[in-house]
Design brief:
With 115 residues, the protein is mostly helical. It has helices at residues 16-26, 29-46, 52-67, 97-114. It is built from four helices and no strands.
Length: 115
């Protein structure tokens, strides 16, 4: 009766509304996903030259603190290391060259065409 792709099962999941409520209870981030997408998609058309993505990000941070979403199981970023990283060259192994060279060549060609 109740199982689905999201692994939702229960007695009240026979209707679409019941499935949505069960999904939000199991994964609280889904409840904020639709309003964020709505703001991002409609913000580009209705309010040009406004930082809609910044408003959505700040709203998500405020909502996660106000609603206590970390206690409900939503995964938050956690502590961010402060300061600048140490200067140095990245560690590139020989196995990565097969992926890096075509990308570097494509960037080079794109820059050559733009000039």
């Amino acid at each position: 009766m109740g199982g689905g792709r999201a692994g939702i099962s229960g007695a009240n999941t026979s209707s679409i509304f019941g499935k949505r409520v069960a999904l939000v209870e199991k994964r609280p981030e889904v409840g904020l996903e639709a309003p964020c997408w709505r703001c991002l998609c409609s913000g580009g058309f209705s309010s040009t030259n406004k930082p809609v993505a910044l408003f959505v990000m700040v709203g998500g941070i405020v909502a996660s603190g106000w609603l206590g979403l970390d206690a409900r199981g939503m995964k938050l970023l956690g502590e961010i290391p402060q300061g600048l990283p140490a200067l140095g060259f990245p560690a590139i192994h020989w196995a990565n060259w097969d992926e890096l060279l075509p990308l570097a060549f494509a960037c080079f060609l794109l820059r050559a065409v733009v000039i």
